[in-house]
Design goal:
single chain; about 350 residues; alpha/beta; D-Maltodextrin-Binding Protein, domain 2; 9-stranded mixed β-sheet; 15 strands; disordered N terminus
Length: about 350
């Protein structure tokens, strides 16, 4: 279990006092320009989730355009890859911030601590849905979570209380109501937060519709997790890398294929691709924001508190990202496909982040 504790500093109080809907003004200790101060590095470095990447890039570009600070460098490495880089050490050669399309794991917090990174600020920015999409040139699928599991799991129930290697070749094999089209799905690699969230929400969601498997979670959790989270490796699922835009391009080239990616990419390419209906619910902005769509998740980024004051502009970047004009209900990130938090939750996270609360293990 992760929890937070408040750290008090002049920097935190300066930020918290800014309030309002505008980006907080730089604290007194950061008034001098980067050229006048000796810094570890004069530009923020950000890595991590391909899903959060377009949001972070948009904020970074706006931040560089409207403040005295350099535009942060943002790289798409996947959530797992970003957290590995983030936790590898302190100093100029390591990133200041990592984006994540899932929450940081306890094992990753321990890895950070092992490398001297003990004070991490957690920033929740909003929500996203994971879609199973295909080209608009083909019919839109209506799936259940059970269908998704049976189509993509490495092993499936054999009808006799055991499991067998996945025998299903077509969607029609999975469910007679589905089209007689080969199962061909492109998705993210294991380093991706989208992959982590997909197996937890969609795969496990369908897996536990089988009562005997659901019971297995209480009696043999490792076996339950292996069965529910392991994706087939016989060619029906193809790892397509961290570039979600590339998946969209491939769907347009192959109308019979499907792709797994975040809602923001569906939203940006709605003229050419469509998201499957899952458990009678379409992946729409409204259905994700109100929790109706079953394959939705929270989005985050993580900040090294040790680097605040050593790299110019980190606190100001946080202020920009958490401002109402960026991640609020009517912020510019909503236009990019981010599902904003409600006003109360957004205000709570703004207070937490601008107060520089740090994440620790219980």
């Amino acid at each position: 279990m992760l929890r937070k504790i408040m750290t008090t500093s002049v920097l935190a109080l300066s930020l918290a006092a800014c309030g309002g809907k505008d980006t907080p003004k730089p604290p007194t200790e950061s008034v001098s320009t980067p050229a006048q101060t000796s810094y570890m590095r004069n530009q923020i470095k950000i890595v991590g989730s391909s899903t959060v990447y377009p949001f972070a890039t948009t904020v970074a570009e706006n931040f560089g355009r409207t403040t005295k600070y350099k535009t942060p460098i943002v790289e798409s490495t996947g959530s797992g890859g970003g957290l590995k880089l983030f936790c590898s050490g302190l100093g100029a050669n390591h990133p200041d911030i990592t984006n994540a399309s899932r929450r940081i794991k306890a094992s990753e917090v321990k890895r950070c601590a092992k490398n001297g990174i003990n004070d991490i600020v957690e920033v929740k920015i909003g929500y996203d849905g994971i879609v199973l999409a295909n080209s608009r040139k083909s019919p839109r699928l209506e799936l259940s979570l059970k269908d998704v599991f049976l189509a993509l799991a490495k092993n499936v129930p054999d009808g006799k209380g055991g499991t067998t290697a996945n025998p299903y070749k077509t969607w029609n094999d999975v469910n007679p109501a589905l089209p007689n089209v080969n199962i061909e799905v492109m998705g993210p690699p294991p380093t991706s937060g989208t992959r982590d969230a997909f197996v937890e929400l969609a795969m496990e969601g369908g897996c536990k519709t089988f009562d005997w498997i659901k019971a297995l979670k209480k009696t043999h959790k490792p076996a339950y997790k292996t069965l529910c989270h392991t994706i087939r490796e016989d060619g029906a699922f193809v790892e397509a890398g961290e570039n979600d835009n590339l998946i969209v391009q491939k769907l347009n080239a192959n109308p019979r294929a499907f792709g797994i990616f975040g809602f923001s990419f569906l939203d940006q390419n709605a003229d050419s691709v469509q998201g499957s209906i899952v458990d009678d619910t379409a992946p729409t902005f409204e259905n994700i924001s109100n929790g109706a769509y079953p394959v939705s998740r929270s989005l985050y980024f993580y900040v090294k508190k040790d680097n605040i004051g050593k790299v110019p502009g980190i606190t100001e970047y946080l202020g920009e990202f958490l401002s109402d004009k960026a991640s609020g209900a009517d912020g510019y990130l909503a236009e990019k496909g981010l599902i904003p938090m409600n006003d109360a939750e957004h205000a709570k996270w703004k207070t937490s982040v601008l107060g520089l609360e740090i994440l620790i293990l219980d």
